[in-house]
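Run log // design_07
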């Protein structure tokens, strides 16, 4: 039932949820009192779930404050407060993409190698197409021949045009050409793929900066959105990736992939707290349907169960 009402997210986040709640349910069941040591242990559990120190402290403080006012009588009441706190913390970064503000709306997809940029572009293209939009893709990862083919394969499968040049050609020129083509073909959304850059790889980072400079020669507002894809499974490392890409090209939004199969989904809370960047989409699998708009409340409710199935033993003390 939970699975149904939560659009599949509950099932996909099971590893993160188990990671988070195995520690918590142990605490609640142990018969400890609702006292300072319990809060400190909750805080430790949150920190260990990749949520980050400051968010964990904020959430725990809110639990303390709430307990003073509400006097929770069960572990589940405390759990409900925890879910609500996480949801509240995530709400500011729930910002739906609106591609109608520009035509074509140009999205530059960036991120390190293997995080899921190209796959996310295909999923996004599929989504926009299903919304009735004209979509175009640009094969801006000219660094690897297979990357161009990968995008062309997706384009053919989704019946979406792909602008591409040869392997090794100038990525900035591909982006520029694609923009001109998108203008003349009445395209609503242009998605530009880029090479997987290790953020420590200076040359490739410079190439990325050049892509935006060249695009800006065609239109100073370009790109309308620089979307950074990060892989949730990298945990804390995702934070330094965001930091680096911000300093090189500026980042306007995030898409977080591979939340299925990782226990590190708590990293989303750390990202939200640290950067406040809009989280547009989350990837929860490899198929085209496995991309969901980020919804704070749904995410918080999938991170934690409704019930730990235990009475809170220290409620009276
Ligand atoms: N399980 C899972 N796999 C994903 C997700 N997103 C992408 N992948 C996989 O990650 C791998 C690398 O993806 P790719 O798009 O080529 O990464 P890129 O190098 O950043 O362009 C592929 O095998 C994808 O199928 C996701 O949300 N969940
Ligand atoms: Mg790629």
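design_07 sequence
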């Amino acid at each position: 039932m939970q699975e149904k009402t939560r659009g599949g997210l509950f099932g996909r986040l099971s590893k993160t949820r188990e990671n988070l709640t195995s520690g918590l349910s142990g605490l609640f069941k142990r018969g400890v009192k609702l006292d300072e040591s319990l809060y400190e242990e909750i805080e430790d559990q949150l920190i260990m779930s990749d949520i980050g120190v400051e968010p964990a402290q904020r959430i725990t403080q809110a639990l303390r404050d709430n307990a003073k006012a509400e006097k929770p009588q069960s572990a589940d009441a405390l759990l409900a407060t925890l879910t609500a706190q996480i949801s509240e913390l995530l709400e500011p970064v729930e910002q739906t993409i609106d591609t109608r503000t520009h035509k074509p709306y140009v999205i530059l997809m960036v991120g390190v190698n293997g995080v899921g940029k190209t796959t996310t572009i295909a999923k996004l293209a599929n989504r926009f197409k299903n919304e009735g939009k004209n979509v175009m893709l640009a094969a801006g990862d000219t660094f690897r021949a297979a990357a161009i083919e990968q995008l062309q394969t997706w384009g053919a499968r989704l019946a979406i045009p792909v602008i591409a040049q040869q392997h090794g050609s100038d990525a900035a020129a591909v982006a520029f050409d694609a923009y001109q083509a998108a203008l003349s073909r009445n395209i609503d959304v242009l998605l530009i793929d880029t090479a997987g850059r290790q953020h420590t790889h200076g040359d490739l980072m410079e190439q990325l900066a050049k892509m935006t400079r060249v695009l800006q020669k065609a239109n100073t507002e370009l790109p309308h959105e620089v979307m950074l894809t990060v892989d949730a499974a990298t945990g804390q490392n995702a934070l330094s990736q965001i930091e680096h890409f911000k300093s090189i090209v500026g980042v306007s939004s995030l898409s977080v992939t591979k939340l299925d199969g990782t226990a590190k989904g708590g990293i989303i809370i750390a990202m939200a707290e640290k950067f406040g960047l809009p989280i547009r989409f989350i990837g929860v699998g490899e198929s085209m349907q496995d991309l969901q708009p980020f919804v704070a409340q749904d995410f918080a409710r999938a991170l934690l169960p409704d019930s730990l199935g235990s009475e809170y033993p220290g409620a009276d003390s």
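Residues 53-70 form the longest helix (18 residues).
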